[in-house]
Specification:
single chain; 191 residues; mainly alpha; 8 helices; 2 domains
Length: 191
Protein backbone atom coordinates (compact mmCIF):
# COMPACT_ATOMS: atom_id res chain seq x y z
CA UNK A 1 0.00 0.00 0.00
CA UNK A 2 2.77 2.49 0.89
CA UNK A 3 4.39 2.12 -2.56
CA UNK A 4 1.15 3.20 -4.23
CA UNK A 5 1.00 6.28 -1.99
CA UNK A 6 4.60 7.17 -2.91
CA UNK A 7 3.88 6.79 -6.63
CA UNK A 8 0.68 8.84 -6.34
CA UNK A 9 2.51 11.54 -4.40
CA UNK A 10 5.35 11.64 -6.93
CA UNK A 11 2.84 12.34 -9.67
CA UNK A 12 0.91 14.93 -7.70
CA UNK A 13 2.76 18.08 -6.59
CA UNK A 14 -0.20 19.29 -4.52
CA UNK A 15 -0.10 16.10 -2.48
CA UNK A 16 3.68 16.42 -2.08
CA UNK A 17 3.29 19.97 -0.82
CA UNK A 18 0.48 18.94 1.51
CA UNK A 19 2.56 16.10 3.00
CA UNK A 20 6.00 17.72 3.15
CA UNK A 21 5.83 21.53 3.35
CA UNK A 22 5.16 21.81 7.07
CA UNK A 23 7.67 19.12 8.17
CA UNK A 24 10.29 20.72 5.89
CA UNK A 25 9.71 24.20 7.30
CA UNK A 26 9.89 22.83 10.86
CA UNK A 27 13.15 21.02 10.05
CA UNK A 28 14.69 24.05 8.35
CA UNK A 29 14.08 26.04 11.54
CA UNK A 30 16.31 23.54 13.38
CA UNK A 31 19.02 23.54 10.68
CA UNK A 32 21.68 25.88 12.09
CA UNK A 33 23.43 26.18 8.72
CA UNK A 34 20.45 26.91 6.47
CA UNK A 35 17.51 29.26 6.34
CA UNK A 36 14.85 30.02 3.76
CA UNK A 37 13.46 33.42 2.85
CA UNK A 38 10.10 34.05 4.59
CA UNK A 39 8.42 34.76 1.24
CA UNK A 40 9.40 31.34 -0.20
CA UNK A 41 6.26 29.44 -1.16
CA UNK A 42 5.72 25.79 -0.34
CA UNK A 43 6.10 24.92 -4.03
CA UNK A 44 9.43 26.79 -4.20
CA UNK A 45 10.63 25.00 -1.07
CA UNK A 46 9.81 21.57 -2.54
CA UNK A 47 11.41 22.63 -5.85
CA UNK A 48 14.55 23.72 -4.00
CA UNK A 49 14.88 20.24 -2.49
CA UNK A 50 13.99 18.63 -5.84
CA UNK A 51 17.08 20.18 -7.45
CA UNK A 52 19.24 17.82 -5.36
CA UNK A 53 17.64 14.72 -6.89
CA UNK A 54 19.84 13.86 -9.90
CA UNK A 55 17.16 11.85 -11.73
CA UNK A 56 14.83 13.36 -14.33
CA UNK A 57 11.79 11.75 -12.73
CA UNK A 58 12.90 12.93 -9.24
CA UNK A 59 12.47 9.38 -7.98
CA UNK A 60 14.60 9.92 -4.86
CA UNK A 61 12.94 13.17 -3.72
CA UNK A 62 9.89 11.76 -1.93
CA UNK A 63 11.16 8.37 -0.87
CA UNK A 64 14.69 9.33 0.23
CA UNK A 65 15.78 12.99 0.26
CA UNK A 66 12.80 14.56 2.03
CA UNK A 67 12.39 11.86 4.70
CA UNK A 68 16.13 11.73 5.39
CA UNK A 69 16.36 15.49 5.77
CA UNK A 70 13.22 15.82 7.90
CA UNK A 71 13.98 12.86 10.19
CA UNK A 72 17.74 13.21 10.49
CA UNK A 73 19.47 11.00 7.93
CA UNK A 74 20.78 14.16 6.23
CA UNK A 75 22.26 16.40 8.92
CA UNK A 76 22.20 19.78 7.16
CA UNK A 77 20.86 21.23 3.93
CA UNK A 78 24.44 22.04 2.97
CA UNK A 79 25.05 18.27 2.76
CA UNK A 80 22.63 18.01 -0.17
CA UNK A 81 25.32 18.83 -2.73
CA UNK A 82 27.21 15.68 -1.74
CA UNK A 83 23.95 13.74 -1.54
CA UNK A 84 23.21 14.76 -5.14
CA UNK A 85 26.56 13.39 -6.33
CA UNK A 86 26.24 10.19 -4.30
CA UNK A 87 22.68 9.57 -5.53
CA UNK A 88 23.81 10.14 -9.13
CA UNK A 89 26.56 7.52 -8.71
CA UNK A 90 24.21 5.18 -6.85
CA UNK A 91 21.63 5.43 -9.62
CA UNK A 92 24.20 5.03 -12.40
CA UNK A 93 26.07 2.10 -10.83
CA UNK A 94 23.24 0.48 -8.85
CA UNK A 95 24.02 -2.98 -10.24
CA UNK A 96 27.48 -2.81 -8.57
CA UNK A 97 26.24 -1.57 -5.18
CA UNK A 98 26.06 -4.07 -2.30
CA UNK A 99 22.69 -2.56 -1.30
CA UNK A 100 20.43 -1.82 -4.26
CA UNK A 101 17.35 -0.74 -2.30
CA UNK A 102 17.69 2.98 -1.49
CA UNK A 103 15.08 2.67 1.26
CA UNK A 104 17.43 0.43 3.26
CA UNK A 105 20.12 3.13 3.27
CA UNK A 106 19.29 5.25 6.30
CA UNK A 107 21.77 8.15 6.18
CA UNK A 108 23.70 10.31 3.76
CA UNK A 109 26.94 9.13 5.40
CA UNK A 110 25.98 5.49 4.86
CA UNK A 111 25.20 6.21 1.19
CA UNK A 112 28.47 8.11 0.70
CA UNK A 113 30.57 5.36 2.26
CA UNK A 114 28.93 2.64 0.19
CA UNK A 115 29.25 4.57 -3.08
CA UNK A 116 32.90 5.51 -2.49
CA UNK A 117 33.94 2.02 -1.41
CA UNK A 118 32.12 0.42 -4.34
CA UNK A 119 33.54 2.78 -6.96
CA UNK A 120 37.08 2.97 -5.56
CA UNK A 121 39.56 1.53 -8.09
CA UNK A 122 41.21 -1.76 -7.03
CA UNK A 123 44.64 -1.16 -5.51
CA UNK A 124 43.85 2.42 -4.55
CA UNK A 125 43.77 3.76 -1.02
CA UNK A 126 42.05 6.69 0.63
CA UNK A 127 43.93 9.85 1.50
CA UNK A 128 42.73 12.96 3.29
CA UNK A 129 42.00 14.59 -0.09
CA UNK A 130 40.48 11.73 -2.05
CA UNK A 131 41.36 8.33 -3.39
CA UNK A 132 45.00 7.80 -4.30
CA UNK A 133 45.23 5.94 -7.63
CA UNK A 134 47.01 2.56 -7.75
CA UNK A 135 49.80 3.92 -9.96
CA UNK A 136 50.57 6.60 -7.36
CA UNK A 137 50.64 4.01 -4.56
CA UNK A 138 53.02 1.82 -6.57
CA UNK A 139 55.26 4.78 -7.41
CA UNK A 140 55.53 5.80 -3.75
CA UNK A 141 56.48 2.27 -2.79
CA UNK A 142 59.11 2.03 -5.54
CA UNK A 143 60.56 5.43 -4.53
CA UNK A 144 61.08 4.32 -0.92
CA UNK A 145 63.34 2.02 1.03
CA UNK A 146 61.44 -0.23 3.41
CA UNK A 147 63.61 -0.58 6.53
CA UNK A 148 61.25 -2.59 8.72
CA UNK A 149 57.71 -3.93 8.61
CA UNK A 150 55.61 -6.10 10.88
CA UNK A 151 51.87 -6.35 11.64
CA UNK A 152 51.69 -2.95 13.33
CA UNK A 153 54.78 -0.98 12.31
CA UNK A 154 56.34 0.21 9.08
CA UNK A 155 59.56 2.15 8.76
CA UNK A 156 60.39 3.62 5.36
CA UNK A 157 62.88 6.07 3.94
CA UNK A 158 61.23 8.15 1.20
CA UNK A 159 63.65 8.93 -1.63
CA UNK A 160 61.47 11.50 -3.43
CA UNK A 161 59.08 14.32 -2.55
CA UNK A 162 56.23 12.22 -3.91
CA UNK A 163 57.11 9.29 -1.63
CA UNK A 164 57.47 11.65 1.36
CA UNK A 165 54.04 13.11 0.56
CA UNK A 166 52.50 9.67 0.25
CA UNK A 167 53.87 8.33 3.55
CA UNK A 168 53.12 11.59 5.37
CA UNK A 169 49.71 12.21 3.82
CA UNK A 170 47.94 12.07 7.20
CA UNK A 171 50.61 14.06 9.03
CA UNK A 172 51.64 17.67 9.51
CA UNK A 173 55.16 16.96 8.32
CA UNK A 174 56.66 19.74 6.19
CA UNK A 175 58.11 17.08 3.87
CA UNK A 176 54.55 15.92 3.10
CA UNK A 177 53.30 19.41 2.16
CA UNK A 178 52.20 19.84 -1.44
CA UNK A 179 51.09 16.23 -1.89
CA UNK A 180 47.86 16.26 -3.91
CA UNK A 181 46.15 13.65 -1.70
CA UNK A 182 47.60 14.82 1.63
CA UNK A 183 46.46 17.14 4.41
CA UNK A 184 48.12 20.22 2.89
CA UNK A 185 48.09 20.06 -0.92
CA UNK A 186 48.48 23.84 -1.28
CA UNK A 187 51.63 24.18 0.85
CA UNK A 188 55.19 23.88 -0.39
CA UNK A 189 57.04 20.66 0.38
CA UNK A 190 60.27 21.01 2.36
CA UNK A 191 61.58 17.63 1.22
Amino acid sequence: MRYWEIINEALNMELTIQNWAKPLRDRVKRDTKFSIPPQMTDQELIDWFAQWDPTKAKKYLINWILPRYVWGGINYAEDLEGVHDDLANFDRFKQRMPEKDILKIKTAAELATMVRETLKPPGSIDGPNGTIPPAEVQAAHSESIKVFEDDTNLIVIPLTARAAGFWGRHSNWCTAYGYKWGNYPDRTSWF
